[in-house]
Design goal:
binds pyridoxal-5'-phosphate; seven-stranded mixed beta sheet; alpha/beta; 40% helix
């Protein structure tokens, strides 16, 4: 049954991608300097490149998306300030409470709509009045893509009007914003135009081993730069890592469309399995609900066939550059075999 020669199909996350030989060659050849002195030409090129693509004044290279968000949030908010954020947004739920713990920012979590956005009419009731009882509401933090969902194209302008009305900054966790750029056949600058700061991951679907870039105004990025040093994110000859990011921007953006097509093919291949709940995919993620199924048994069954799934409910499947169509076909067959033996 198990063929150890079969390549592993790792559907746990798009963070599992490994740099290919060309990316490694670009890294090995990178011109470097001490980036804490601002001397690394490759880091500088990456920062400038993403700032230009985003239509912002400046960029800052950071080791992770979590740190990039943290520095962005702290650039907007001081001690005792508040940010409005989705209840299941990465900046609230998945960053170990960093905004509160390290930033002394009070998060005000807000229930999200099915597409991840916040209902702006309801959101107004969370903005605090200027009153000694309350924290100062200073920032609205949003996310695109959220759980694979695209932010509706007309939403950022509405969020900007809301932010202006309430004198808030506007941050975007754009860890997977390039998936939205490709899925919506848009440009980065169009999708992020309304935001003051945007955090972009190079280490997800873009396939770099490490790194995120925060973009925004010169003033906000200068603040984030000081905070990056404070939280230990000032790296030295980081051009070796930035070179991977530049390679990814040159060669691995358009191909995100393949990941989206692979998710659609997977959804179609599973569509007629009775009682399997399949959320309509929008980018590179597929969510499956399977009431009553022994998920441990499913994961073990798939692992025997060298297909790796996350332990997560509903089950999240993520495609990326190390999963090809053959891997998707194997995944469809394996799911079908499992659910024939264990009907839902
Ligand atoms: C992965 C991710 C991050 C954080 O990135 P790390 O590099 O893992 O710290 C932030 N936001 C979203 C939406 C993410 O998916």
């Amino acid at each position: 049954m198990t063929d150890s020669a079969l390549p592993i199909v790792d559907l746990r996350s798009d963070t599992v991608t490994r740099p290919n030989a060309s990316m490694r060659a670009a890294m090995a050849a990178a011109e470097v300097g001490d980036d804490v002195f601002g001397d690394d030409p490759t880091v500088n090129r990456l920062q400038q490149r993403l700032a230009e693509l985003a239509g912002k004044e400046a960029g800052l290279f950071l080791p992770s998306g979590t740190q990039s968000n943290l520095c962005g949030l702290m650039a907007h908010c001081g001690r005792g300030d508040e940010m409005l954020v989705g209840q299941r947004a990465h900046t609230y739920w998945y960053e170990a409470g960093g905004a509160a713990v390290l930033g002394s920012i009070q998060p005000q979590p807000v229930p999200q709509e099915a597409d991840g956005t916040l209902d702006l009419t309801k959101l107004a009731s969370y903005v605090k009045a200027d009153d000694a009882h309350f924290a100062r509401t200073r920032l609205l933090s949003l996310e695109n893509t959220w759980s694979g969902h695209l932010m509706p194209r007309n939403y950022p302008a509405k969020a900007r009007a809301f932010a202006n009305r309430h004198k808030l900054g506007l941050h975007l966790d754009g860890a997977r914003i390039f998936n939205a750029v490709v899925a919506q056949n848009s440009s980065l600058s169009e999708l992020v135009a309304e935001f003051d700061t945007v955090s972009i991951c190079l280490s997800k679907g873009l396939g770099a081993p490490v790194g995120s870039v925060l973009v925004g105004s010169r003033e906000l990025i200068a603040r984030a730069h000081r905070i990056r040093k404070m939280v230990g994110g000032g790296m030295r000859q980081a051009g070796i890592l930035a070179a991977a990011g530049l390679y990814a921007l040159d060669h691995q953006v358009e191909r995100l469309a393949e990941d989206h097509a692979n998710v659609r093919a997977l959804a179609e291949g599973l569509a007629d399995i009775p009682n399997l709940g399949i959320e309509k995919p929008e980018t590179n993620m597929l969510f499956l609900t399977m009431p009553g199924v022994d998920r441990g048994a499913l994961r073990a069954f798939m692992a025997e066939r060298r297909i790796l799934l996350l332990e997560m409910h509903p089950l999240r499947i993520v495609t990326h550059l190390d999963v090809d169509r053959a891997g998707i076909e194997r995944t469809i067959s394996a799911f079908r075999e499992f659910f024939e033996r264990h009907p839902i």
